[in-house]
Amino acid sequence: MKNKILLTVFFILISSLSFSLIVTTINPYYLIVKQIVGEKDEVHLLLGPNVNPHTYSLRVSDVKILSKANIIFANGGIEPDLSKFDVVYLRDYIPSLFVEYNNPHFWLDPYFVKYYIIPTIVEKLSEVYPQYKSDFEANAKILLGEIDEFLREYKALNLSGTVLVHHPSFYYFFKELNLKVKWVEQGYNVSVGMKKLIETIKSENIIAIFSEIQQSKDEIKIISKQLNKKYYTLDPLGVNAKKFIDIYYQNFEEIRKALNNGK
Predict the structure, then answer these.
(1) pTM above the 0.90 mark?
(2) For 19-153, which CATH superfamily applies?
């Protein structure tokens, strides 16, 4: 009987240490939360990095997982409807003064991540698991150090010009590099006809063209061919990223190659 009681207490203690009910909607936040929480597989990713969150619809299995979550981290503005759940929308912690064109791709601005997203995640996790607040802060400090190191390399470049993208995921990322951004989805109206679109783009003196892994490449391929300019592929969600900082470095390298004509 005594052994059964001890065993029960043991399992209660083990369950109290579990982070299995943390859910993140997209891979960048999964990587951030996982690094802050520690090396625990229990942090759940709702949408894989190959999935386009703008067009994804929740499955029954997703609803079950979300219903069990102690805390859900979402970007807001890009995921499927989560109004039935208690969600921490990280967009709500970005000052509206800094939001441009209602662009919700906040994780691709290193400064948003450093000053708003990581502190918010640490704060919200600490509210749910107060006993691990110091651990969260220590792990976040390491991640912030990685971002600072990236920023030193990132800001060392002295760039100028205009890039063309299909979808404006990297608007903030390019802006921090002092590059102007035009995008097919909004900056130009595809419905006017591809010929007129090409003529408009030619007048912009585009220095590089980018598509994204998760987006259609149809228009970009046509534009690339007409301009006789190779396009490069960016990945806002980190298909091959092992850590959050990998998303920055991998895309930064692709941008560098594009600006150096593939070299």
Answers:
(1) no
(2) Nitrogenase molybdenum iron protein domain (3.40.50.1980)
